[in-house]
């Protein structure tokens, strides 16, 4: 089988998808809310990576728009989380 | 190769959906709901349905995630433990039966669609008359425009419903201040909001413009705008307006009103929501830009919630 460029991109997408799965394991295990939300962010970053690589594999620039929207809106969820969770003077790590 | 990708993606979607449903911790459920939305977005990308992918990533994963996170914070502030409490067995079994029945019905109807019977064949020959390339936009704003018109009013109705939950004496007022309560975090979020809002505006304006010929459109763009507005509000860069501000009311009804006016003007050209020959693209772009503005403001206010009494938000830092 002759490997075209698109096949390599698809292989990269599979690899990125597996890293998303690893991030989701961390999200599931936790243990704290900070770990969960950071792992969800990591998974979101991975998904954006998959979208970019898939776009390269298909040669469709519109996939980049999906990645851009994901990038813009991912940051809002974590801002909302910090706003709802943190209390004044409570900015140290959970583990400390 | 593509098959392996699809298989892993399907397994991950089933896994995240299962965890989001069954995990006890509310935050974990929300985190997995967001991950589920992102993975569904990837699925739509894989199916070359980029319009749907944009909507799923923006609305399903983005703004709904923010809404759920804020709702959890509000429950925590009220003293609820925000974890799933026990429900009676009959209720759970009943819900299971209802959902299973619905899934079977849905699967049966999807499987009953013949593979070659897409709308594409019907729509494609009609597109040159509109002067735009994106067939989804063509369906949403020309061939099935009344659906979209009604949807834009439904969104407005949802905001009216949320506003009607305002406690007595709070009307007309501002929603609860979504800003950070801790001063250093407020500064960080403020800078971030100042950076993000212009980027979101540019991105949203681009999405509307691209929506004529490429994937994009008013709903996706409005969601991006709402996200930018929410971050700016959380950092105190912008204050949420009082619900009786005339400018705010104008922004809320602008999109649906312009859509309706252009639709009514179409009667002169042959019928409700008929665009005059050769003007379709210009009118569609006008409708999309006004609709995007209204959708963005409406979604941001839907997330912000109903007005609250002024006395109950003692925030000495005030509005940015």
Give the overall form of chain B.
Answer: globular
What is the rounded distance between the termini of chain A? 54 Å
Low-confidence stretches of chain A: 88-96
- Multimeric organization: heterodimer
CA gyration radius of chain B, whole angstroms: 22 Å
Report the β-strand fraction of chain B as a percent range. under 5%
The number of E-state strands of chain B comes to 0
The average pLDDT value of chain A, as a whole number, equals: 83
Q: How much helix is in the residues of chain B?
A: 55-70%
What is the total number of structural domains of chain A?
1
Cα gyration radius of chain A (Å): 17 Å
How is this structure best described in words?
In chain A, 78% of the residues lie in helices and 0% in strands. Chain A is mainly α and 96 residues long. Chain A contains 3 helices and no strands. Chain A has one domain (16-85). The model of chain A is unreliable at 88-96 (pLDDT under 50). Chain A is flat, with a radius of gyration of 17 Å. In chain A, α1 (5-29) runs antiparallel to α2 (33-58) and α2 (33-58) packs antiparallel against α3. Mean pLDDT of chain B is 86; it is low at 312-320. Chain B starts with a helix and ends in a 16-residue tail after the last helix. Chain B has helices at 2-22, 26-46, 50-78, 89-111, 120-123, 135-143, 145-163, 183-210, 218-234, 246-265, 280-304. Chain B folds into 2 domains: 1-81, no CATH class; 132-312, no CATH class. The interface between A and B is large, with 52 and 69 residues.
Brief overview:
Chain A is an all-alpha fold and 96 residues long. Chain A contains three helices and no strands.
Present the secondary structure layout.
The complex is a heterodimer of chains A (96) and B (320).
Chain A: H1 5-29, H2 33-58, H3 62-85
Helix pairs in contact in A: 1-2, 2-3
Chain B: H1 2-22, H2 26-46, H3 50-78, H4 89-111, H5 120-123, H6 135-143, H7 145-163, H8 183-210, H9 218-234, H10 246-265, H11 280-304
Helix pairs in contact in B: 1-2, 2-3, 3-9, 6-7, 7-10, 7-11, 8-9, 8-11, 9-11, 10-11
């Amino acid at each position: 089988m002759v490997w075209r460029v698109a096949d390599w991109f698809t292989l990269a997408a599979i690899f990125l998808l597996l890293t998303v799965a690893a991030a989701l394991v961390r999200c599931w295990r936790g243990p704290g809310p900070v770990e969960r939300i950071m792992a969800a962010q990591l998974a979101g970053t991975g998904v954006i990576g998959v979208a970019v690589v898939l776009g390269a594999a298909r040669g469709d620039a519109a996939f980049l728009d999906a990645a851009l929207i994901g990038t813009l809106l991912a940051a809002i969820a974590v801002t909302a989380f910090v706003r709802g969770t943190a209390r004044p003077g409570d900015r140290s790590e959970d583990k400390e | 190769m593509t098959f392996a990708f699809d298989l892993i993606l399907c397994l991950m979607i089933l896994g995240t959906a299962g965890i989001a449903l069954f995990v006890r911790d509310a935050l974990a459920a929300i985190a997995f709901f967001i991950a589920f939305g992102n993975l569904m977005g990837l699925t739509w990308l894989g199916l070359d349905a980029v319009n749907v992918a944009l909507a799923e990533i923006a609305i399903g994963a983005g703004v709904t995630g923010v809404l759920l996170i804020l709702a959890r914070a509000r429950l925590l502030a009220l003293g609820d433990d925000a974890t799933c409490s026990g429900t009676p067995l009959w209720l759970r079994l009943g819900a299971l039966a209802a959902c299973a029945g619905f899934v079977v019905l849905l699967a049966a109807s999807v499987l009953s669609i013949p593979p070659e019977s897409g709308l594409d064949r019907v729509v494609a020959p009609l597109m040159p008359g509109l002067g735009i390339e994106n067939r989804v936009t063509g369906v949403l704003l020309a061939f099935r425009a009344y659906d979209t018109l009604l949807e834009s009013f439904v969104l407005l109705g949802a905001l009216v419903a949320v506003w009607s939950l305002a406690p007595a004496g709070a009307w007309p007022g501002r929603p609860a201040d979504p800003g950070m309560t801790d001063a250093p975090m407020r500064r960080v979020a403020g800078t971030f909001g100042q950076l993000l809002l212009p980027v979101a505006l540019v991105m949203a304006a681009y999405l509307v413009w691209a929506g004529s010929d490429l994937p994009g459109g008013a709903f996706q763009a409005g969601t991006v705008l709402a996200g930018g507005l929410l971050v700016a509000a959380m950092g105190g860069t912008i204050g949420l307006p009082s619900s009786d501000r005339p400018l705010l009311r104008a922004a809320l009804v602008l999109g649906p009103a312009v859509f309706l006016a252009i639709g009514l003007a179409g009667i002169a050209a042959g019928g409700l929501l008929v665009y005059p020959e050769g003007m379709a693209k210009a009118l569609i772009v006008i409708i999309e830009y006004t609709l995007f503005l209204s959708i963005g403001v409406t979604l941001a206010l839907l997330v912000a919630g109903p007005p609250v009494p002024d006395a109950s938000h003692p925030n000495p830092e005030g509005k940015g």
